[in-house]
Amino acid sequence: MQIIMGNNNGKIISIVAGGTELPTGEVFNELLADSTLILAADGGADNCLIRGISPDLIIGDMDSISRDTLRHFPPEKLIRIDSQDNTDLEKALAFCSDQSPQKIQIFAWSGNRIDHTIGNLLSVRDFYQKYNIPVILHDHLGTINLLGPGEYQLSMKKDTIVSIFCLDPLINLRLTGFRYSVGNPNQKPGFRGISNEINKYPAYISLEQGLVFVYSQTYSVNIVKTRNI
Question: Which of 36, 133, 165, 179 is the Cys-Cys partner for 11 at CB 3.0 to 4.6 Å?
Fold first, then answer.
């Protein structure tokens, strides 16, 4: 039995944030191709304009978007939220929660300021835990998937580099089809399995409790939830 991650309405929302680490132009365009909706989080509109992408909406307090970019896009594309209680990425994610997407992918979430990068990881963790909507993070080298309790099938090529880490306690974390197994399946916050490798196709990750960030040094990532735990 296959359980596709997220709901089945097929809606894919892409968010372009204001960081500096984006996939190359061709890869970026391919990853965006299936998007139902493209959102720019404030200064992410600058990234869109540079890459020749027209976002459907621009969300934020409009304090980081350049004046030239702001003039380029029509006012009806702007959703101005002046609150300083959350970041522009969090504003975009809050908008996504009302759309009930199958999944969300985020670009330009890292680079430039390390405090923004760490903050974005925490924001995405909180969002996933609250709404259980799959979130995928893309940078200039690869992809991060967030996985909660369950069993997941990873269809990746043999020898693909995969790193797994967590910010929360983990119960019964199991890896199958990886070069290195997990010595203790119950882990404290801060667990990090850096530079593991896929050595069997397909590979599997399962956990009973917690949330893991799974980084893969590839964009060819197919992760399917196969079982609830």
Answer: 36
